[in-house]
Amino acid sequence: MLVLNGLGYCSPRSEKERALAEQLHFSDRVRLACQTTITGNVTMRRLILDAEDAGLTDQRKEATAHGLVGEERQIAILFVDVRDSTSFAESVPPFDVIHILRRFYHHMDKAVMDNGGHIACYTGDGLMALFGIESSECAPLQAVRTGLDMLHSVKRNIQPYVKRLFQCPFRIGVGAHFGEAVVGMVGGGLQERVTALGDAVNIASRIERANKQARTQFLVSEALLREVKGQVRVGKSLNVKLPGKTGKYALHEVVGIRTAHGKQRAGAGSPA
After folding, report:
1. Angle between the N-to-C axes of helices 94-114 and 139-153, in degrees from 0 to 180, rounded to the nearest 10
2. pLDDT at 268 over 60
3. What is the pLDDT of residues 133-153, one digit of tens each?
4. What gap in Å lies between CA 117 and CA 33, rounded to an integer?
5. Is beta strand 218-221 parallel, antiparallel or unpaired with respect to 172-186?
6. I want to staple 125 with a disulfide (CB 3.0 to 4.6 A). Which of 28, 85, 130, 224 is the partner?
7. Using N-to-C axis directions, what is the helix angle for 159-166 and 94-114, rounded to 10°?
8. pTM (global) more than 0.90
9. Residue 225 and residue 252: Cα distance in Å, rounded?
10. CA dist., res. 189 & res. 119, Å (int)
11. How far apart are the first and last CA of the chain?
12. Closest Cα partner for 181 from 133, 222, 235, 143?
């Protein structure tokens, strides 16, 4: 059951319920009715209404490990996108477009996985990755490292390949934000994947798009920068209007990671 109001009137979780909640990533408001004693006025609703619900929310399956029932949590959200993908696709034979994108996603996926992230979705010429799905104090730094690794990988593994074969550029933009989002599993069967919804996701997407106007390759929000202050090397900072949002947002260009000796670990390269 989901406790809507009066959580304080519910008895503490028993040892068995606590173990199950940790295993299945239940939020504090998801309780087992058979294990909970009520001492006051509580408003609740059932999470499982019928047999179809039961099948969709069966977290005993190995593939559903990341908060399937849905929960709000602070996460880092990263978007990466191929610059001028339409003109690029028009200038390269169709087979080669897909081949290059497969090569691109291979390296982008590796950067995400190597830094403890999860691929939430692909967008044709980009992807969204999430950090902090499991409890992590370093999710923002994981996102920053991923973005820098992506830029480095494109510069080393993809740009020379595309330039040699087609004499055209291949550039990407990366944007990241840290905020609260609804996280859960969606999709059916083998297509189940962790995803996130909410304003933080929209902001992260718009930050990535702001690279084109700012002539940068990697921008992060003020909220994310606060979490990694002193650990990253920052280029220029700017206040921009994000589409669909009111007011201006402070964005910051990330150009590297500070090592123990204050040196730059990886750079973002030249402007897009």
Report:
1. 140
2. no
3. 876 779 999 999 999 999 999
4. 34
5. parallel
6. 85
7. 170
8. no
9. 8
10. 17
11. 50
12. 133
Pairwise CA distance, residues 194 & 69, whole Å:
11
- The two beta strands, 248-257 and 232-241, are antiparallel
Task: Find the length of the chain.
Answer: 272
Of 119, 92, 84, 111, give the one whose Cα is nearest residue 194: 119
Q: Which two tokens stand for residue 110?
A: 């590796």
Q: Sketch the domain layout of the chain as residue ranges.
A: 2-47, 71-257
The answer to whether residue 62 scores a pLDDT higher than 50 is no
Token pair of 245 as six digits:
């949002």
pLDDT, residue 91, reads: 80
How far, in whole angstroms, is CA 145 from its chain's centroid? 13
Residue 100 CA: distances (Å) to CA of 63, 118, 163: 29, 22, 12
Higher pLDDT, 24 or 107: 107
Cβ neighbour number for residue 40 with a 10 Å cutoff: 8
Give pairs for 117-125: CB < 8 Å, separation 24+: 117/78, 117/142, 117/143, 117/146, 118/66, 118/194, 119/193, 120/193, 120/194, 120/195, 120/196, 121/193, 121/195, 123/81, 124/85, 125/81, 125/82, 125/85, 125/101
Is the CATH code 3.30.70.1230 the one for domain 71-257? Answer: yes
Three-state secondary-structure class, residue 31: coil
Q: Which residues contact 53 (CB under 8 A, 6 or more apart)?
A: 47
Helix (H, G, I), strand (E, B) or coil at 90: helix
Query: Can you list the alpha helix ranges (DSSP code H) found in 215-263?
Result: 222-227
Taking CA atoms, 87 is separated from 82, 104, 164, 256, in Å, by 11, 17, 18, 30
Q: Which two tokens stand for residue 157?
A: 């593994």
Q: How far apart are CA 12 and CA 22, in angstroms?
A: 14
Residue 79, CB half-sphere, CA atoms under 13 Å: how many? Answer: 25
